[in-house]
Design a protein that fits this description.
Layout (H helix, E strand, L loop, with lengths): L3 E7 L4 E4 L5 E10 L11 E9 H10 L5 E14 L5 E14 L3 H4 L11 H4 L6
Parallel strand pairs: 4-6
Antiparallel strand pairs: 1-3, 1-5, 2-3, 3-4, 5-6
Length: 129
Amino acid sequence: MNKVILLGRMTRDAEVRRGESDSIFARFSLAVDRRFKKDGEEQTADFINCVAFGKTAEFLEKFGHKGVKFIVEGRIQTGSYTNKDGVKIYTTDIVVENIEFAESKNAGGSGDSGFGNIPEEMEAEMPFR
C-alpha cells in the first residue's frame, strides 16, 4: 500500500499549468513540522514537493496560497530525468488525491467562514460557506 497523509503549510503559491487538451496540474511544496524536537532546539520542518491534477489542481489554483494550512492525502511517486548537463536527477513527489483546509479562518486571524487564510475576495467563489 502506498498512502501518505500530510499536515502542513504551503511554502509558496501553487504553480498551476495547463497542458494539451485542457489538462491541468499544480505543483506546490508543504512545510510539514517534524513531530518531535529535542530540548532547546527550534521546531524543524520537512519541505515536501506535491503535484495535483484535474479538479484538485483547479481547487489549488483558487485557494493554494503561501501560508495556507492543508491536510493532503496521496501517494509517493518517484521518478528520474536527465538534466541539460547530462546528470541524472532523481525525484520524489506526493501525488495528491485529496486536499482539505486544515484550520479555521478564525485561527488565521480574521473572518468567520470556517476556513484558513482565504483572502476575502476569494470567499465568494467558494462552493461552500
